[in-house]
Amino acid sequence: MSFHDAFAQVLFAPEAVMDPAVRRLAEQPAFAVYRNTVMKGCIDALEANFPAVARLVGTEWFRAAAALHAAASPPRDGRLLHYGEGFADFLQHFEPAAELPYLSDVARLDALWREVHAAANAPLLDAAWLARHAPERLAALVLRLHPATRWAWFAEQPIYSIWARNRGDGRDGDEELVWRGEGALLTRPADAVTWRPISEAGCAFLDACAAGLPLGEAAEQALVLDANCDIAALLEVLLRVGAFTPDPSTESTP
Q1: Contacts for 170 with CB less than 8 Å, ≥ 6 apart
Q2: In this structure, are residues 237 and 190 in contact, taking their beta carbons and an 8 Å threshold?
Q3: How far is CA 103 from CA 52, 62, 93, 176, in A?
Q4: What is the pLDDT of residues 42-98, one digit of tens each?
Q5: Residue 154 carries which DSSP code?
Q6: Of 10, 189, 206, 240, whose CB is crowded by the most CB atoms within 10 A?
Q7: Per-residue pLDDT averaged across 168-197, rounded?
Q8: pLDDT of residue 44
Q9: Whole-prediction pTM value?
Q10: H or E element in which residue 197 lies
Q11: Does 235 score more than 70 pLDDT?
Q12: Mapping DSSP to helix (H, G, I), strand (E, B) and coil, where does residue 153 land?
């Protein structure tokens, strides 16, 4: 283990460090100040990266849990926006969160928001280009997902509603929750991340698109889950929110 690796390890697990020089360094009184500063930075990053979770449980609870997670899973990337890749799994098995069975999935949506925010920029697919295709050709088209498109289906709990109410300014209302499965779709059509609910059929449609299936087969996947799914309306919404980007290999095809 290099000195730098040992130094990083002693910040989070001093008992595991074998390097005598690093151990002597860690025994100096001033080193505790440095260690506390690093730990605070990790906790601050987690609190910033998981705002819906923090709002649900409160600052004191969140920071106590974040400290345990940071000690066990320190950052591996200097870009702290990406820190917390294992936090949702940590919460899923965290005993004090047992009475909040939705918390880990709320954390997963917070993580998806970060992915959307940090995703590469790309142009949006022009709905007019799609409309120029004859119906028989439309079914054979393969739509390319925008790099910032993310979605998830939660079969048993209203995760999207819980997350949306605690994510921003409360714009999604405070009416009584209906305890049923929900889907979430996050996109970034411009500079800001946007989100909206999406049906299980809609998630299946996007899954099929992500797998490279043509529109006709993607529609079939959606209709298997919901025979009444309005594919045209679903596609219109997905285009409007910026879920797709042009494929350079087919963009010029009329």
Answers
A1: none
A2: no
A3: 9, 11, 11, 18
A4: 999 999 999 999 999 999 999 999 999 998 998 988 889 999 999 999 999 999 999
A5: E
A6: 206
A7: 86
A8: 97
A9: 0.88
A10: strand 194-198
A11: yes
A12: strand
Q: What CA–CA distance (Å, rounded) separates 37 from 49?
A: 18
Residue 7 contacts by C-beta under 8 Å, 6 or more apart in sequence? 22, 25
Considering just the CA atoms, what is the radius of gyration of the chain in Å? 23
Residue 249 and residue 228: Cα distance in Å, rounded? 33
* Cα–Cα distance for residue pair 185/198, rounded to 1 Å: 6
User: What's CA 41's distance to the chain center, in Å?
Assistant: 21
pLDDT at 8 over 70: no
Q: End-to-end distance of the chain based on CA atoms, in angstroms?
A: 59
* The pair of three-digit structure tokens given for residue 133, joined into one six-digit string: 């295709």
- Candidates 82, 87, 90, 89; CA nearest to 118 is 82
Whether 218 contacts 208, CB under 8 Å: yes
Helices (H), the chain: 3-12, 20-26, 29-49, 51-57, 59-72, 87-92, 103-118, 127-131, 135-138, 159-167, 200-210, 215-225, 231-240
Count of CA atoms in the C-beta half-sphere (13 A) of 92:
9
Which residue bears the tokens 């990790």?
42
The one-letter code for the residue type at 189 is P
Strand, helix or coil for residue 81 = helix
> d(Cα 150, Cα 116) in Å, to the nearest integer?
7
Q: Where are the domains of the chain?
A: 1-118, 121-254
